[in-house]
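Reopening this one. Same input as before:
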Amino acid sequence: MRHKISELADELKTIAIFFVAAVIVMKIAYYRENLPEVIRATASIFWLFALPGYAMTLYWKGRLGLIERLAAGTVAALAISSIASYYLGISGLKIQNQTIILPAAITAVSLFFYLKSSAGNLFSEKGLSKNEKPKNEKQ
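Same output, byte for byte:
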C-alpha cells in the first residue's frame, strides 16, 4: 500500500505541472484579467472536475496513461458532479456547500476504494473477485 501512495505522490506532482501549464494557457486566453483571478479560476476547475476525475480513474491506472485518465476522468467528474448537484439541490443542499462537499466526497470515496482494492481486500488487479480465477489461466 505504501508503494501505491508513493506512486500517487509522483502522479500528483505531474498534475501540479499540468496545473501550472493550465494557468499559463488561461492567462494567455484571458490576458486582460489579473493573475490571481486566473489562478483562482483554474484552481476551481481543477478542484471541481480534474482532481475528482483523476481519483475516479485510478482503477484503470495499469491500463491507461496519466493524461488519458486525467482527460476521461475530468469529463466523467463533470457529468457525475452535475447529476449529483442536481439531486442534492432537489434534496435541499444549497449550491454554496456543494462546491466544497461534492468534489471532496467524490475524491475521498474514489481514493478509499482504490486503496482498498490495491490492498487486495476488495478486488484483485484484474478486476476479478478474490476467489475467482481468470478463464485463460490453467487451474
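So the earlier flakiness isn't reproducible anymore. For the record, The CA atoms of residues 59 and 114 lie 6 Å apart.
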